[in-house]
Amino acid sequence: MADLSNKITIYLDREVDFTKDVLLQDDGQGQGAYIKEWNVAEAQPTEEQLNAFESQANDLETANQVIINRKKEYPSIEECVHAILDDDLENLQILRQAVKEKYPK
Asked: Which CATH class, in words, describes the domain spanning 1-53?
């Protein structure tokens, strides 16, 4: 099941500040998160409207996980700088490509 925050992001079709624009809350009662405050100009969606974005939100979560995984395994900034200074860009690209192949989009 997709996160409510991702469904809202897709519904609004823009980045959302979940500390100001839309506040979510989970009371720990097993019901999951819900919209506590809606502070944007667009109309607050119904649960049914948000559920219509389930598939797209799952796709977004999968794509975000690929990015997270890649960032963990990409060479560090320090390694990139050393590769540039040591004229070793070819090996750097090989490392990056291996990560991309391990976590395809």
From this structure: alpha beta
| 101: Cα within 13 Å, side-chain hemisphere | 6
Other Cβ atoms within 10 Å of 95 Cβ, number: 15
What 3-state DSSP class applies to 24?
strand
The label of the residue with tokens 């939100």 reads 57
> How confident is the model at residue 5, as a pLDDT?
96
What is the domain partition of the chain in residue ranges? 1-53
Beta-bridged to residue 38, according to DSSP, are 22
Contact 22, 41 (CB under 8 A): no
Q: What is the per-residue pLDDT across 43-89, written as a single tens digit (0 to 9) for each? A: 999 999 999 999 999 999 999 999 999 999 999 999 999 999 999 99
